[in-house]
Amino acid sequence: MPAPLPVVRTVAELRAQVAAWRSSGERIGLVPTMGALHEGHLSLVELARGQAARVIASVFVNPTQFGPNEDFDAYPRGEARDAALLAGAGCDLLYAPTADEMYPQGFATTINISGVSEPLDGAARPGHFAGVATVVTKLLTQTAPDVAVFGEKDYQQLLVIRRLARDLDLPVEIVGAPTARAPDGLALSSRNAYLSAAAREVAPALHAALRDAVARLAEGKTVEQVELTGRAALERAGFGPIDYFEVRNAETLRRFEGARPDGPVRLLAAARLGRTRLIDNIAG
Amino acid sequence: MPAPLPVVRTVAELRAQVAAWRSSGERIGLVPTMGALHEGHLSLVELARGQAARVIASVFVNPTQFGPNEDFDAYPRGEARDAALLAGAGCDLLYAPTADEMYPQGFATTINISGVSEPLDGAARPGHFAGVATVVTKLLTQTAPDVAVFGEKDYQQLLVIRRLARDLDLPVEIVGAPTARAPDGLALSSRNAYLSAAAREVAPALHAALRDAVARLAEGKTVEQVELTGRAALERAGFGPIDYFEVRNAETLRRFEGARPDGPVRLLAAARLGRTRLIDNIAG
Q1: Span A76-93, pLDDT tens digits
Q2: Is the Cβ pair A113, B109 closer than 8 Å?
Q3: What percent of chain B is modeled with pLDDT above 70?
Q4: Percent helix, strand and coil across chain A, each rounded to 5?
Q5: I want to staple B76 with a disulfide (CB 3.0 to 4.6 A). Which of A7, A269, B36, B49 is the partner?
Q6: Residue B178 · residue B281 · CB < 8 Å
Q7: A163 touches chain B (CB under 8 A)
Q8: Could you tell me the pLDDT band of residue A3, with boundaries at 50, 70 and 90?
Q9: What is the largest CA-CA distance in chain A?
């Protein structure tokens, strides 16, 4: 049994602990999460441990990145379980602020990122990335880590965060971690807990369709053909509606102008399965 | 003759100097400016010197806080003169980044503050405070000072900056400095250089009208009466158009709901005099 994980709930306590570690010359890693932890999160903690002497995980279900009809209230929460998993993964501190600590009375600031935050989930979830950008900036300025680790599972989010860290001159290295998957290919996600047994059987078709699309691109199919085939595969499997299934520039998330990609490729998809919205992406 | 002021133009050089000072345990003060320095700016440097062992002044004419029809191109510039004035005031370092250093290719981030940034200059100059908030956040994250000093001359800007520093958890103390004035009451401003000799004679009427309004409020006049009288006085003096002449809550910049103020008062005014836009404000 690992020792219980220390928990802090205020910026002042967080900074006191970070200052103590820093005065001993220790590098600090941060793994921001919304809790409901799974093996994917724990792989981020492990990655951070390889880059920093001390690893802090934050758990904060950020209300401002949920739309009015999204699952903020239903989002799974369980701090005791999260803390035990983090302790087992070698995390040193859990930062679990309240909503009042993050957004005190009078809070009035929003950070918008143009470009990478606009298409895909930016179009499907208005305001989502402004909420993400604002809370992640706060977590980074509150913690002042040397390195912060985010999963490629939320690939567009990772690009948004890289952009804001660069644009706001935050002295932190942003590290992307490969998506952790179930043996059948389904990307691990806290929202997988919403899936019925039948939907869980269907869910791996999302990753399969993305892999198939990569193969078709390699065969020389056009972007349009590949996207149409991918959407059709998802519909056949039982997904719907499909928010997007797209071949995009991996750095800018722009569409390619020609029929075939002429730059680094990322394939990204988002679709409903029953009442659950699943997203996934892979390199092209 | 003071020694020439060291100048740095990149974030990396700035951080190297700040890190060296910090490793000697010295507190750092920052005075952000747009150059074209006058006694008002130098009073900010002096105030910073009272609170920090090392004082950095930044000079950056920030394009994103000027509207398309404003005076970005015409804004007065003169680095050699600014550097000499700063050296004489005991400043330790001039940070004068290029626009490319502040906004490199691909820059995509905007910080918006709701509430205090919306009325008055926020209404008269769309996008102005988003430009201010974004560049000041960058200057604060680039420099990481212990204290940053801003003039009350730009009172609404000061409130916007206090808000963003608090909301984004920037570990810096924001200090407001009293407005420096000419003997006839005119607030010192780089834009006063635009005034013709005749307009310079008229300009002190702005401060006089604000002082008169404070006296009228003290006599028990209503907010509406005071504002009407103030606008009329400016028009009589030769100002026009008048963007605003208003009695506002000093903390929120909201209007008072009743006929007379029931909280801390700030009187703020902005008006054209010839082709020059002047602003001023005083405590009520």
Answers
A1: 999 999 999 999 999 999
A2: yes
A3: 99
A4: 40, 20, 40
A5: B36
A6: no
A7: yes
A8: confident
A9: 58
d(CA A140, CA A155): 19
**Sheet order of strands, A276-283 included:** A242-249, A265-273, A276-283
A67 touches chain B (CB under 8 A): no
Average pLDDT over residues A108-132: 98
- How far from chain centre, in Å, is Cα A147? 16
Cβ neighbour number for residue A225 with a 10 Å cutoff: 16
Percent of chain B with pLDDT over 90: 99
- The DSSP-derived string for A105-167 is TT--EEEEE-STTSSTHHHHSTTHHHHHHHHHHHHHHHH--SEEEEEGGGHHHHHHHHHHHHH
pLDDT band (50, 70, 90) for residue B2: low
What ipTM does the predicted assembly reach? 0.96
Å from A261 to nearest chain B CA?
21
Cβ A9 vs Cβ A98: under 8 Å? yes
Q: Is B96 on the interface with A (CB under 8 A)?
A: no
Q: Give the per-residue pLDDT at A2.
A: 67
Question: Catalytic residue at A41?
Answer: yes
Contact of B100 with chain A, judged by CB distance below 8 Å, is answered with no
B95: closest CA among B21, B39, B12?
Answer: B12
pLDDT on residue B200: 98
Which residues in chain A have their CB less than 8 angstroms from residue B133's CB? Answer: 109
Phi, psi of B273 (to 5 degrees): -135, 105
What are the structural domains of chain B?
A: 7-177 (3.40.50.620), 190-283 (3.30.1300.10)
Contact A168 B113 (CB under 8 A): no
CA distance A284 to A279: 16
Which residues contact residue B83 at a Cβ distance below 8 angstroms, ignoring those fewer than 6 apart?
A: B4, B5, B7, B94
Please judge whether A112 and B116 are an interchain contact, meaning their C-beta atoms are less than 8 angstroms apart.
no
Interface test with A, best of B23, B107, B167 (most A CBs within 10 A): B167
- Taking only the tens place, the pLDDT of each residue in B231-279 is 999 999 999 999 999 999 999 999 999 999 999 999 999 999 999 999 9
For B14, the token pair is 């700035």
pLDDT tens string A231-258: 999 999 999 999 999 999 999 999 999 9
What is the rounded average pLDDT for all residues in chain B?
Answer: 97
Measured between beta carbons, which residues in chain B are less than 8 angstroms from residue A116? 108
Nearest-Cα distance to chain B for A194, in Å, is 33
Is the peptide bond between B241 and the residue preceding it cis, with omega within 30 degrees of 0? yes
Distance between CA atoms of residues A7 and B55, nearest Å:
38
* pLDDT score for A166: 98
Average pLDDT over residues A13-17: 98
Residue-level pLDDT at B3: 78
